[in-house]
Amino acid sequence: VLMILCFHSASMCPKGCLCSSSGGLNVTCSNANLKEIPRDLPPETVLLYLDSNQITSIPNEIFKDLHQLRVL
């Protein structure tokens, strides 16, 4: 079951980001040359790293489905 969950989370990882499941789902999009926040973030994301990108705005409600998000 754990292998299936890990594969499922990894397959939902946004393009240009790395996902790991250490203490919850960590989505690392650092240094990915992003111009906007990915809209396909997994709903189980706990930590989200977006540093060192070219993001200039945060759309309304972009994080509304990320109920487990603790670190941004």
TrEMBL record:
One of its GO terms (cellular component) is membrane. It is a single-pass type I membrane protein. Its main location: membrane. It holds the Pfam family LRRNT. It comes from Mustela putorius furo. The lineage of its organism: Eukaryota, Metazoa, Chordata, Craniata, Vertebrata. This is Leucine rich repeat containing 3B. Gene3D superfamilies: Ribonuclease Inhibitor (3.80.10.10). Residues 12-47 form the LRRNT domain. Keywords: Cell adhesion, Disulfide bond, Leucine-rich repeat, Membrane, Repeat, Signal, Transmembrane, Transmembrane helix. Transmembrane segments: none annotated. It is found in: Membrane. It comes from the Eukaryota. PANTHER family: GLYCOPROTEIN IB BETA, PLATELET GLYCOPROTEIN IX.
